[in-house]
Amino acid sequence: MKTTFSIGGIHPNDSKISKDCKIEVLPLPEVVYVSMAQHLGAPATPVVKPGDTVKTGQVIAEPAGFISAFVHSPVTGTVKSVGPRKDLAGNNVTHVEISVEPDQWAEGIDTSDTLVVEIPQDNKFILDRIKACGVVGLGGATFPTHVKLCPPPGKKADCLILNGAECEPYLTSDYRIMLERSKEIIVGAAIMKQVLGGCRTVIGIEENKPEAIKVMSESLAELQKTAKGFDGIQVMSLKKKYPQGGEKQLIDAVMKRQVKSMGLPIDVGAVVQNVATSLAVYEAVQKNKPLITNVMTITGDCLPMERQHNYLFRIGMPLSYIAQVAGGVPESAAKIVSGGPMMGKAISNMDACTVKGSSSLLYFTDEQTRRKEASACIRCGKCADACPMGLEPFLLNKYARNGMMEELEENAIQDCIECGCCLYSCPANIPLLDVIRIAKGDVIRIIRGRAAAAKK
Predict the structure, then answer these.
(1) What are the pLDDT digits (tens) for 120-137?
(2) How confident is the model at residue 1 (pLDDT cuts 50, 70, 90)?
(3) Which of 181, 203, 242, 273 is spaced 20 to 30 Å from 192 by Cα?
(4) Which pairs from 436-443 meet CB under 8 Å and 24+ separation?
């Protein structure tokens, strides 16, 4: 029997329109703009200046703290400027502008397609490579991967879980890399398993992706027969349910363990990484290749099939350029979303550029984005039934609208993962997620302020 998480969840339409679109390599633009804030934690510090020439894969920014990451040039060319530029949300963020020339890769980077299967046994070497190559989590949070692979003292990983659920409707980039780069993903998993002490490793894939389950299982079986280091890895078929790709939900589905309020996965012996992150780990450790590329989906119901794409992009590409290469923004598109329809963010600035964690350009029509008029709460409890964190959104909404911060904290608003299940399930069309998201930010600031004051 297929497994899934035990609390809440919903079943939106898959809408995986672009699932059969093979990964295409995007041609390079004339100029790229590389953000210094494309990972969780402190923005990186630029180490180049206008007039400098850079090679593809060369370091252009260094970490500015423990939770930070190196940033590398995605192209060969000349640095034109270093300064503020608007990001997806319209905020000013430091970018390095580089005029693009034909690729010359930095020394020591292996750009061949040769599969390297042998797993290094030196954990320090592995972690140093992952850090030096700027690898971050590609499942949404972009947390520096080398930090996540180093559990704090007293904590031990019982299970490494690779997230291949891709439960957000429309998105198909993870699905395509599981089909086209399956062995590299599995080698990346074996590398992380080695660093974590050889723990059990599970690659979780939802049942609505049978071809990915088949290809990953066959590749794993072949590697287990022909190479060392792949024992203790399995592919697990998961029952389709949103938000299965959430860390805590995936841990529940695979390990049947629940992470407590404000807790971390490692508290229950889990480390969760996305399949795209595993591919990036492979390229970093086996090829010394920095994280300067990822795959993004171009999709939407208003796009004809020939304009659906899964693109291998380089960081720093303007979104407007990608949209143009893909045939332009459709006239019927009223909103463009970065990410999936449930947790993605509307793009307010198409001149913003791709970052390591970019996952899609999703086009919605006016009809799809128009909200129905909200009515009074009928206390049906559907939002509470759907919440995968076991919260009571109708109650949090009431407290938030009345500014009741203590009550919000007591009812664990800080545990909300902003998945949108409450909004999706509400028959009264109450904008629960909008209200709760704002109030959650306020409560977390109060908690952090209290913690900082206690340290003084």
Answers:
(1) 999 999 999 999 999 999
(2) low
(3) 242
(4) 436/393, 436/396, 436/397, 436/400, 438/400, 439/396, 439/399, 439/400, 439/408, 439/413, 440/408, 440/413, 440/414, 440/416, 442/405, 443/405, 443/408, 443/409, 443/413, 443/414
